[in-house]
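Section 5: illustrative case.
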């Protein structure tokens, strides 16, 4: 029985991937490719302009001498800059991932209701719970795993591009690469996926519930309801009624419902995680980011996300399509 249920979930997730391959697969690959191409064009432009004006950085080996005279602190700063180059290539891909997950969840159930293909899928021996959970898995596991792999590949290519460029200016490329921490950056990105799954649940649940409930224009309902409620709470605060904390509502209700699907939102929401460590990139280390598991904000969001996913299942089962 468990094997059958596992096979059904596997094929349901595979169906989601096939139907949304453009967002899940091609969007991060194309984004990474465009980012690398723009960086390559920028490097070539800088080299051409420098050559036209007779500027040749490190031509006499001075740049290499500067590096050889650096102390441990200076070397650490160079390594951090190289790590930053890797993270920067991933950042754009993760922004695109946030938009992909947002609009995927918003249309995941509504689209099959609109084209009435839901009638076909409901005729199969598949429960509403399995179907909706396959969409949750696609949004919180499949999409971020593919984006992370694409981001790591783009980051490594970005690092090699920077190192090879500097090697033309007399810098030992291997010495430069040894200052970077590609393994640590890679592990940080892979290890962040489970945290993303947990943190994104409120957004995923809210968007799926709107997708299953709204008869038309789920985008407007998904945005308008929390924003209008936030404005109402703010108005009550201005009028001195009920003494409701408007700032808390916007940060913990509106923002969590709409923006938790964007990777890195958990770091922005938790200032304590960012301002930790002597290195400016220490906040990305797993030992720091996993402190989030001790946050009550995370687990309330997980509970709210689970309740909203249950609501999406209920709406999909009982929503009158006539």
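Designed sequence:
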């Amino acid at each position: 029985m468990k094997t059958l249920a596992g096979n059904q979930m596997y094929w349901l997730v595979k169906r989601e991937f096939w139907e949304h391959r453009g967002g899940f697969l091609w969007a991060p690959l194309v984004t990474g490719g465009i980012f690398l191409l723009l960086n390559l064009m920028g490097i070539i432009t800088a080299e051409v302009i420098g050559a036209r004006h007779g500027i040749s950085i490190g031509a006499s080996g001075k740049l290499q001498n500067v590096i050889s005279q650096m102390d441990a602190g200076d070397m650490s700063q160079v390594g951090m800059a190289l790590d930053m180059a890797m993270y920067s290539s991933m950042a754009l891909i993760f922004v695109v991932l946030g938009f992909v997950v947002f609009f995927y969840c918003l249309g995941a159930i509504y689209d099959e209701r609109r084209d009435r293909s839901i009638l076909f899928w409901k005729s199969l021996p598949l429960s509403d719970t399995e179907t909706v959970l396959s969409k949750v898995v696609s949004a919180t596991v499949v999409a971020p795993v593919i984006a992370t792999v694409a981001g790591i590949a783009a980051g490594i290519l970005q690092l090699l591009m920077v190192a090879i460029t500097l090697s033309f200016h007399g810098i030992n490329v291997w010495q430069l690469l040894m200052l970077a921490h590609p393994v640590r950056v890679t592990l940080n990105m892979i290890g962040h996926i489970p945290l993303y799954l947990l943190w994104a649940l409120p957004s995923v649940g809210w968007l799926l519930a709107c997708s299953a409930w709204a008869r038309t224009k789920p985008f407007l309902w998904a945005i308008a309801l929390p924003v209008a409620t936030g404005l109402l709470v703010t108005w009550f605060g201005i009028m001195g009624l009920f003494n409701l904390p408007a700032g808390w509502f916007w940060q913990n209700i509106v923002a969590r419902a709409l923006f938790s699907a964007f990777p890195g939102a958990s770091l922005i929401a938790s200032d304590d995680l960012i301002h930790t460590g002597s290195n400016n990139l220490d906040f990305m280390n797993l030992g720091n980011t996993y402190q989030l598991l001790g946050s009550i904000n995370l687990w309330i969001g997980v509970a709210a996300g689970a309740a909203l996913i249950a609501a999406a299942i209920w709406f999909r089962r009982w929503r009158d399509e006539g």
